[in-house]
Records
---
Amino acid sequence: MKENKIPYKTYLDESEIPTKWYNVRADMKNKPAPLLNPGTLQPMTAEELAPVFCEELIAQELNNTDPYIDIPQEIVDFYKMYRPSPLIRAYFLEKALDTPAHIYYKFEGNNTSGSHKLNSAIAQAYYAKKQGLKGVTTETGAGQWGTALSMACSYFGLDCKVYMVKVSYEQKPFRREVMRTYGADVTPSPSETTAIGRKILADHPGTTGSLGCAISEAVEVATSTEGYRYVLGSVLNQVLLHQSIIGLETKTALDKLGVKADIIIGCAGGGSNLGGLIAPFMGEKLRGEADYRIIAVEPASCPSFTRGKFAYDFCDTGMVCPLAKMYTLGSGFIPSANHAGGLRYHGMSSVLSQLYHDGLMEATSVEQTAVFEAAEKFARVEGILPAPESSHAIRVAIDEALKCKETGEAKNIVFGLTGTGYFDMVAYQKYNDGEMTDYIPTDEDLAKGFAGLPEVNL
Amino acid sequence: MKENKIPYKTYLDESEIPTKWYNVRADMKNKPAPLLNPGTLQPMTAEELAPVFCEELIAQELNNTDPYIDIPQEIVDFYKMYRPSPLIRAYFLEKALDTPAHIYYKFEGNNTSGSHKLNSAIAQAYYAKKQGLKGVTTETGAGQWGTALSMACSYFGLDCKVYMVKVSYEQKPFRREVMRTYGADVTPSPSETTAIGRKILADHPGTTGSLGCAISEAVEVATSTEGYRYVLGSVLNQVLLHQSIIGLETKTALDKLGVKADIIIGCAGGGSNLGGLIAPFMGEKLRGEADYRIIAVEPASCPSFTRGKFAYDFCDTGMVCPLAKMYTLGSGFIPSANHAGGLRYHGMSSVLSQLYHDGLMEATSVEQTAVFEAAEKFARVEGILPAPESSHAIRVAIDEALKCKETGEAKNIVFGLTGTGYFDMVAYQKYNDGEMTDYIPTDEDLAKGFAGLPEVNL
């Protein structure tokens, strides 16, 4: 073991929990493109968004100017339940890799939702409650977001209707039961409870659902039910805003330790974790105060950054949502059945897409057997069984640390460990049994997805 | 929310991790009765125990005199991976109960084994490695202990053979996969791999196994395989010694906060958690320095303290282990299929049995629907989904807090939250579906178990 002046785990005091979220858009020269009304192709106004989203969340969604937004005390109180989350020095992993690199990870999985999703769920539930709503609707794939929202709604006494992608509903009954324990109403999607669900079932009998389809159902219910709004766990600007608490705490902890990050790594599905983790660091970069290598990691089976197009696209299968400009594989793209359910979305946050487009961050894609190899190594030496999603970041952190071993550089590598894999044991079993396979879409596969991009891009 | 000078979560510094375990036996006037050789009915010597257990662990097992035993640095290093564990002030629960009581819980579930079991697993693996062994064998029921031991063996590069009660092996495939991810060899018990397993299968075709039977198989393999020894996750004196780290950290944290506990509550199966949590408090009580109400909570379906006999009994079904004097329901007692797998053992730690017999602690039993009601309430307000075992302590902590509400007393209630329920969702589903039932054994049921007590008691 190296001599460790820096502790294994750095916990900030409760008094150091941030009281403001950081809005990276305020510091972006090229702002993220606005959401468009799919009918008029004009930027969505707050008024047009009001039937779908909560008022204050719309204000946050459209706010490209204020760098800091106060976190209401009720939310800070809730954050104290599971925050500050630890920044962990990966001494055991460094030793196992025999690398001169210093590896740190911000661990967001030590709460019952099992991931960072709770950071935004509690904020969204709070604003829904404040607006006097009865409840909210949402979709969930792997189930982390649905679980987080169930916990948040239970806390504020809100109804919570979750449309869960049918294949997950059936294959992950335990996530479903956690949501039910928190009082949520969980429906497998597509379902007979919505017009769009009935249409999809008629058109595709026997379908096991998709995230885009579940979004359509949840939005339909929200907009057609008195006192309900729709909430989303990733992609949106407001979500990245709330998740900035991850990066703010990370930066405070690193500053206290006197450590300057060289490389910051996060997995990227819709961008909620990565956008939150990098926010204050990207802010410094945008303001010319510091430089960092920032790396987004996505699955090779769903490579929106690395092989997608930067274009306006539908956010959902039913095409009821506004259009967003983003790196996308097309809303009709169906990724192969990989085991990182949280990284299977066809698009990417508009904020991150713009930053990537402007060359302010890198992206790379990794195959899932390599990801699980890293996950197993990490679990064995660091004692935490990581979520498949988070393990994408672990893979690249390990690769960067091994490069340091070659060059002899003691770089500071920081990555986001977004969650735990306790509900992903089917995937681990596949890996343990040697039955895991990789899949990389062909150019023809991608062309099919791109063919469905809306005409606005022409 | 009450004004909170005391933080929600108190984390000690890494430098405050105890460097010595506390051995409560040293302060006991009436020492726990010794293990007996089932053949000679004489106290087991270190020599007789050597084929089964590791040498240093035998020394700890038989040590009734030294109050403190140094924790080797390698173990302290490993503890830093997940310790110190937080002492949490249950502000949210207090508010929900509207009680003047102050409730604290020591949360041992924030590690991948999901429970406190890792505290002893790493110690036992360390001593096995130090002795130059190739590997260890053990049994596991619900799987927490097996998981913890797998993690510990993986860390020290030891083989780990786990005999998992067949019904758990089949119904809890995910725990099994966590163990496999850590490289353990997991066999459903009873199995064809041992003589005792083959005998049990022949005598009881179709049996789904029991903890006592899995112990017999694990002991047989350890004693008949070169370079292997057997390790156990509860009941034994050495395990309570290692688990004293829970109580030592709890006491340090309470002392720093200036809080004197009035009531200390823990669930009790074999006694590993309760014995560890109460150790330093019981020490003060034994030395006449302070007084505490200490309450053991057990399931009504397996009531060894509250309805058992204080007698010498077999520790395993195969009767290959030494006899232990303890509160027991008889090694042939089969508890009903309750959902707290970790609390289904027929006996209880000799240390705790003696302390209970001497009136130094109380015991109570609770029914599982009441336990899950408490678990759900706790999950919703405190944000942690508790293990069914731990929820026994939650139930009684809530009951005591509600008594405080009646009397207006602001008592300090401390309980042990031993683990998380992420692998217990079948039980939660039963509760969510309203299909959970209670079962209390009749006096006739108990009489059958007592009939199998060995003759030494006559």
---
Amino acid sequence: MSDTVMTSATPSARRRPRFGATHIDMSHGAGGKATHNLIEGLLVPAFSNPALDQLSDAAVLTLGETRLALTTDSFVVRPLRFPGGSIGELAVNGTVNDLAVSGATPLGLSAAFIIEAGLATEVLIGEIAAMAAAARRAGVAIMTGDTKVVEHGKGDGLYITTSGIGVVDPVLQLGATTVRPGDKILCSGTIGDHGVAILIARGDLELEGDIRSDTRALTPHVAALRQAAGAGLRFMRDPTRGGVGTVLNELARDSGLGVVLWEDQLPLRETVQGACEILGIDPLYVANEGKLLAVVAAEQADAALAALRLVEGGEEAAIIGEIRTEPARMVLMHTHFGGTRLIDMLVGDPLPRIC
Amino acid sequence: MSDTVMTSATPSARRRPRFGATHIDMSHGAGGKATHNLIEGLLVPAFSNPALDQLSDAAVLTLGETRLALTTDSFVVRPLRFPGGSIGELAVNGTVNDLAVSGATPLGLSAAFIIEAGLATEVLIGEIAAMAAAARRAGVAIMTGDTKVVEHGKGDGLYITTSGIGVVDPVLQLGATTVRPGDKILCSGTIGDHGVAILIARGDLELEGDIRSDTRALTPHVAALRQAAGAGLRFMRDPTRGGVGTVLNELARDSGLGVVLWEDQLPLRETVQGACEILGIDPLYVANEGKLLAVVAAEQADAALAALRLVEGGEEAAIIGEIRTEPARMVLMHTHFGGTRLIDMLVGDPLPRIC
């Protein structure tokens, strides 16, 4: 069964959205539908090229026999420090993870700083140290950089843009068009921790709770999966801005297949669930910064799960769903209460500046 | 003569400055002494690795037999559009040029946008189009990207960070430690055009003048030099933020040799000179965005100059100085009036947010 499937919706066949807003607003940065419209309505048509058109976490380019991955992300998280991490740690781990889920071993990172005049030097020193420590833990070097300063009132302390290059494993063939009906969907641990930790850290909600960001490098998780699942590893993504719900919607759309989730199987901390209920947000759309979603062939799924659970930060990994032919291009969740509900793309702007 | 020289001052032997400021101010972004103290006092010690320690426009890393160049720059220029260019064009050309002066052929670029909420969509569309056009002209693709949105009042319309990777010419051995006494210093055209165009465009000076930014890709200029000078091509740099004066100071420091300039030979538009006099700034420290400084062995200097002058944007190229053993680690200019003056590193903050 897993070898006969149509992938009618290749990226190039995708209908381009029109970008209708006259001004950019916060929703365009939230990672949901508005962000997609911005990227696919404005950026992709202008820059169109085969690597960009894949819209993956990293562009893959070939150099002789070698495939190189190139990725970039700006980090504008507020506040700069929060329980479990800080902007500097996030900036390194985020780019390391974009390379890792592309099946690439990092060669090096770059870091560009936009500093608001008036920032205390000790804050900057703290973030530089956090970046250096995160890079050391991930086994990657920050090889080049840039610093710019903008006037007080034209920034928010510190923005950091990291880019990374890596060498893609020649054996792996990852991508939405590689997944097959029957494949299992693995999640490496509890969802929503990062986003809720940030919201609580902002202090403008009447919420307390010992929730820490899950920021970490996913390199060892990816290595464990590669070893356990081999060619059965079909797709990986780290569900950051927009959360698990957004990644699975992209997967359904780009594969032309259906994604089925079991709510009972979603790893979710009680404290995060409670906070989400109070805030009226769905943890499926809340950002993670140290979680891996993977699609693995059914035959390798149990071995992959067992391997993932042996890795630090993967102890609570679970098989949360599977790929089916129907409902095509949609994400359907079987709820706690025995019903089903469609998980759509995130609309609106619940969590600005989460990363 | 050109083969016997001591390069006593290797980068690793360089004394690290201490960073003493308690807060970051605009001078730390101006490209002069304060920026150097920030980079070498805070960033380099924390991230220390062989590629970063070179402090070049791009880090060079090896992948098997191949040398790859990785570079990044954030662009925060104000205003977004100015005579002769715009932030989007600058962001592409700047990164293309950092690769070009490293002797690298670009493989691809990334672009990360930090957008202030409230930015008119048409402004964003204009910059995306400018980037696409600049990339097309430079023959390079924008392969991946990121978009973030920050609240109104936490940005300034649009900041763009571009990164690039390229393959370094295996024959070229470029660097400050490669230059030799007797080598000539070539400049590809008039200096200070970009910085003065920006200052006039801001409109807060009582200045008018038909001065346009020189933003352009330097790829053809570098190609012409490589062909004409061969192994006689020793060092290249694009004198952006901090200007020609800063690049030559870095060259003197990192080579351990003396740099001698002839003011008479500096290509300088009368309008730019006039504006600089009124503003009380030295064109040697004013940013360029489409000029190349190169050090070429004396034997190849005339051929290199002739080749450069045949390239569009290189018509006014000149030999502006030479390398000598003395004054070691300093830049000395022979002035119009027959005297000499030391050109030191830029101190203070004459031109914030120039790129």
---
Amino acid sequence: MAQKPSIPKGTRDFGQVEMARRNYIFNTIKGVFALYGFQQIETPAMENIGTLMGKYGEEGDKLLFRIQNSGEKAAAAPEKGLRYDLTVPFARYVVQHREEITFPYKRYQIQPVWRADRPQKGRYREFYQCDVDVIGSDSLIGELELIQIVEEVYRRLGIRVCLHINNRKILAGIAEVIGAPDKMIDITVAIDKLDKIGVEAVNAELIERGLNNDQVAALQPILNLSGTTADKLMVLKTILANSETGLKGVAEMEEVFALIEATGVQLNIELDLCLARGLNYYTGAIFEVKALDAQIGSITGGGRYDNLTGIFGLPGVSGVGISFGADRIYDVLTELDLFPQALQSTTQLLFATFGEAELRYALSWAKELRARNIAVEVYPEPAKMKKQMGYADEKAIPYVAIVGSNEMETHTVMLKNMTTGEQKQVTLDELCTIL
Amino acid sequence: MAQKPSIPKGTRDFGQVEMARRNYIFNTIKGVFALYGFQQIETPAMENIGTLMGKYGEEGDKLLFRIQNSGEKAAAAPEKGLRYDLTVPFARYVVQHREEITFPYKRYQIQPVWRADRPQKGRYREFYQCDVDVIGSDSLIGELELIQIVEEVYRRLGIRVCLHINNRKILAGIAEVIGAPDKMIDITVAIDKLDKIGVEAVNAELIERGLNNDQVAALQPILNLSGTTADKLMVLKTILANSETGLKGVAEMEEVFALIEATGVQLNIELDLCLARGLNYYTGAIFEVKALDAQIGSITGGGRYDNLTGIFGLPGVSGVGISFGADRIYDVLTELDLFPQALQSTTQLLFATFGEAELRYALSWAKELRARNIAVEVYPEPAKMKKQMGYADEKAIPYVAIVGSNEMETHTVMLKNMTTGEQKQVTLDELCTIL
């Protein structure tokens, strides 16, 4: 009858060590979100299929996990699908609950999403997203606060990062002034490769992507942009002189950088004109964060959108949000060995005993320690001492309190420090002081 | 184009107030679990359909949500279903990871489960379970620790409860000694109604359920059981004298009650021979916890099982576990008005400003406060003061710091206590002291 147990491809079990590490990441992020007044919500794993379809492009529609209805009325029930991201459910949530919501609305959401992608290294069919958004205000203080949050989260995690920032209006302006307004994405994809392949190859690719020689020539000042952020913005103002949209984008960037300076943000921030981001709902600032000491791509990203809720009947609500990539942050912390050591075990001490009477004695000590909020375990049987010590070892419990008849008589335990191997007889009061 | 947004029947959105309350429940429970060395794991939302099918009875199979495969290779991919409870995935986890696990294995798991039940008041298609188990030991210290956990969780939550305890071996013994070993469930279902319908009606129901007059007569001493736990166990020993299983059950209960007494457990505990619990994998102690001040049924339940992992190829591993019903605990705390007031908002203070310069001034103060780990918000625009104050009101933010030109000149803010209405001008240092 026995079945060989396994889990679906692209999904994962998280054991206690992974969970402690994941909780460390989520709790760090939540702690920073709370400092800025963002509050948590959750939405159901399944949404009506109509809520999801058509929101992620043709490719996305194919990657939706659909849910089959069980039971007799299966045919009559509306179709459902598993959440594909947290953005569309959030837009649905805002529209559905708009009467109860206080705008500007600051929310965060940390939940799994599901995609029927081909599983491969670092790509899963179930993974957590961690989104933070403020919606219902076009104030650039939204951008500033997200940048401050990025700074503080990575400061707390100990990861050195660079935040790349750009603005969709600038990209649109560039495409507009060179006379190729429909080529915004093509241009940025090509420019993105500048560091890797050089100016000549980028220009060749631009031609391949349908730009003419004049347009490529007009792009050269942008490819050559260098210097400080102020220098870059100055040049852009000249180039974009005839694009209202482009100039608006420059003005937004100027204000964001002014706010960054006024509030003393210490983060590495680079105005990166090659940053485009794929999602087509962005309309203003866009961000990506890269770890400086690990080769892993973007670990946080986001941007401003002006009409996310329009599809659900609430147009013209501007918002800005970012998403922390928990899996990649986990990988960076692992690679750089930055997880705190203390996460391994929450248990401070194990009682190991030589007999039933000693076990009862240990239980009453354990009660006293727990009443002082100290996490302890009692090995549930007077098993061989080697077995009990092995348990402490494997669970990385730092102290073992050994109880034999001598300890019971003297109202003590034999305390063993599992790191140093040191042993000494201690009273309950002494034990509390040590722990 | 606009769609009217909604969510599938039987599912729920959780807004910030509900989330804060749910997190309060989960964090309280987690804090107690940690004191006893239980560690968290998570399993995927979807399991292979073979893992789930046949584990919940015919009725359960019908209530599984199945997942349709998307994409080209849909037909070839193995079928999957959404997690129906946390017990079967836990058994699968233990067998799959047995080489990495240190036994006795103490784990907890807090995740949603999905059932295609007909939605109705208090019954959802997506709801959280909160399970804690120790597996790989038949020591009754497992039972003791779960009882201590129940005591401490409800002490911390402020809910008065009674824990009902019984033992499947006693129930089996009773059925055995009256010569109806296959009628264990029928007998307990009938006895369960004793308080409501009286002895005569119970006896009639027992006959209806297939017992003969002699068997019903033999049951009378059990229906009349009263007195202390020790009294009840004494009578049971006489009644069950010829059942090895029954006597083993009595001995287990005696030991559990001895451990309870030795460790000074203060919880209301009642040996309740009418408690049966439906799940057929229980083999020893069974528990249910009821709130004394709310009519809501069981809010926590569980028991010992001797062969949960057998179906996945690992027989003979004994364990004991309980599950906290988060939704019902939420309802009890709401009904009895026991949620702490401070959960409503994490933000301590809102900056409300009269102009752009004041806004910048507020941003630099906000930075100082956040650096001291104080959660504050800056209203992102110098909107009408009424609007800014309304925002603080709706979010239940206890203090507003109003900034005008006078405050900027004197390096202060006008601090308004939103509860009392009091206002006074304070410096940054004074503000930090107040918050």
---
Amino acid sequence: MPGSAAATTSGVRHVVSAQQFDRARLEALFAAARQMEGVLAAGGDDRLRGRLLATLFYEPSTRTRLSFESAMLRLGGQVISTENARDFSSAIKGESLEDSIRIVAGYADAIVLRHPEEGAAARAAAVAPVPVLNAGDGPGEHPTQSLLDLYTIEREMGRIDGLRVVMVGDLAHGRTVHSLARLLTVFERVHLTLAAPAAVRMRADVRALLRARGAEVTETDDLRTAVAGADVVYQTRLQRERFAESTGEEGEAAVGLAERFRITPELMARLGPRAIVLHPLPRVGEIDPAVDADPRAAYFRQARNGVAVRMALLAELLL
Amino acid sequence: MPGSAAATTSGVRHVVSAQQFDRARLEALFAAARQMEGVLAAGGDDRLRGRLLATLFYEPSTRTRLSFESAMLRLGGQVISTENARDFSSAIKGESLEDSIRIVAGYADAIVLRHPEEGAAARAAAVAPVPVLNAGDGPGEHPTQSLLDLYTIEREMGRIDGLRVVMVGDLAHGRTVHSLARLLTVFERVHLTLAAPAAVRMRADVRALLRARGAEVTETDDLRTAVAGADVVYQTRLQRERFAESTGEEGEAAVGLAERFRITPELMARLGPRAIVLHPLPRVGEIDPAVDADPRAAYFRQARNGVAVRMALLAELLL
Amino acid sequence: MPGSAAATTSGVRHVVSAQQFDRARLEALFAAARQMEGVLAAGGDDRLRGRLLATLFYEPSTRTRLSFESAMLRLGGQVISTENARDFSSAIKGESLEDSIRIVAGYADAIVLRHPEEGAAARAAAVAPVPVLNAGDGPGEHPTQSLLDLYTIEREMGRIDGLRVVMVGDLAHGRTVHSLARLLTVFERVHLTLAAPAAVRMRADVRALLRARGAEVTETDDLRTAVAGADVVYQTRLQRERFAESTGEEGEAAVGLAERFRITPELMARLGPRAIVLHPLPRVGEIDPAVDADPRAAYFRQARNGVAVRMALLAELLL
């Protein structure tokens, strides 16, 4: 499926933004990821033998890095890696990101880039003679996270059209919910319930986009009611400090507010038997570990799906 | 040898503690490690082809990490690695060790864990769907170090039963000597001489255990006499600050004390021609480098044996 | 070509200094590197299958590390790596470099060493039972950089004899220009123009050596005139602080001075059509990015050539 999942610069394809993917491309990616699950079950294969991936992380994100490296190695490729490119001696000396990318492109067949600045991935893609995969550029995008979130929904529920998705938590600041919400509008009749304290409700530009694209959107601050009838509950990290700050409440009031948006066994009792709970992880308290044993708790399967999705992307870009 | 070297949790085998190993298991491990020396001499093999090991180090221990990684690669496996999981972005955000382990288990077929907290390896093993190998959990255990120590004694001396072993240094605080002393009691008629300043004599619970298991134990603060007739001298790191602090002596007195427990060419002259000197390394001054050229100085062979022992463990857990 | 590129210690060959290489050895290395470019174009090969390289970096130099690792992996070998051996737990505990090298030599078939102290590579080579490759030892040597510089000149120009080479920048402190200047004297009729502010002119001992070896040397502080007729312009990093300090000038004066040694499109107009511009990189401002698109800007090709040169060295030492 040439060209299916990637922006191109001078004929080189990149994964910079989840917004590159239309419905046909997403469905092709899901099919490829599903096939990669089979490859994983069979112990990997050798289709990327002789190919070399560089993981260039300007801020730590061990989970994302290890997931990409696992994906590459499972397909028989190899990896060169830097955990902390902030200390990249050349970066310290004032080298531009563009120069660093040009150099590393001379060492590897593709580059996974994590960078704290929005737009870094696009800048890298603009000069790289090899594919660049954006592994998060600050407040910008983290497309492979959004793609694995969406793949997990499709994988667990069998479809995305017509699903009722509840997004929970700090919807004002969460990069993952903004990106996933936009991607969901590619599908039909998705109903989104945005469950958040008023002070951290979904960002206005995302709400406007959802409405412009015809998504059904409900906003609420009552999670207990919201989960009834939901197919997917997408929980995100609660940052109590931020809640407290945003609401002007402090101490016990903030704790009480966070408690109302927490997923507990009691809340699970209100959720349908075929629904699922997702979370981009890490969690710090917003899902009670007592929920982990519930088969509807899909967040560890979700993390694992990241490997299959990244295998599909790497295979597409490198073959 | 299924089940031979590992505790099990839900059917998954782990290496958490050296105490998991009884005599039969130790002997099977030694045979397997010996075979791995042959594999190394032949340039490695491919028996772990397609298998992926994650090394997850929450504190630096480059030597242990590289030894495990070498073992995995020599058997044709692959490695994903983090040198400094303290900066694991998820750990910073407050993620539990258990969650981190569950995630990384989705990326790899086994996990080598180094963690500063006692009991961390057991906690990891309790939730991991893949084998966990303890590479040191603070004041707790470092089982592969103990196993390579014991393997080296067996490899160099041809047996362990009936040996006269002198342990030297700070026996109050040294994790390696506690673990090795316990493991030696699995064998018969081992005589242990514990050579240490009184202030840092062997920990009472270990002494009690040794006596309960019928080991012959002698304590002394005179290393020069102790080495006469010894088969194995196991030197450990002298921490002069700690000596000084423990004894109330300072400055020259502490230096003099340390000097009395140092291995020098002169001390080697008192040691039998077939005896060996071991040290878990790093050393800082407690073995004179002039001893290195002596064929009885076995500590670099000991370090190298770590690779063969870890190959044997990885092959057992992953095949 | 056994023995061709390496000093030996007890029969083990090492790459410690560029000065190990005479003309015949350099030419053999260039031929091998050229062949490695073909191997790279074909997607690598397997000639180092089963071989293991350790990269041991006591200070960060991600570029050099990744280049070596890429070279090893492109030949089918494997790598164990530490980005920051300063935090090597054993180094913290006071272990000597020699002990660390002996240990790591038990894990790998060759060691790439980066260390802040001059002479560290020679100390390592003196005790290592496996080849040591110097990846920079402080103010000492960085031989693979010099070799890739020279290879690039030969590769781009077709010869080295008789070339007119202009070296630009801080020639007092630059390790790369000292090393390259010495290496160029191995060839015939090379004319060197040393273009630098007087305060940071080429170090006296290097000038003396160049003259002793019969090189034609011109010194100037006028880059615009110097480039006319040049075959190779070797630009190096401008450290304005150092210029300012050295010259006693500050602020605008220092900026003006730096500007006079900068490579700009206007300066390129004075350069011949077949000449090339090199730079060891990273650059911070001493080459205008507007020059990058000029086919005579060879610095990114130069960086890429490092992989082929290191492949040639690794193959020579490990086969």
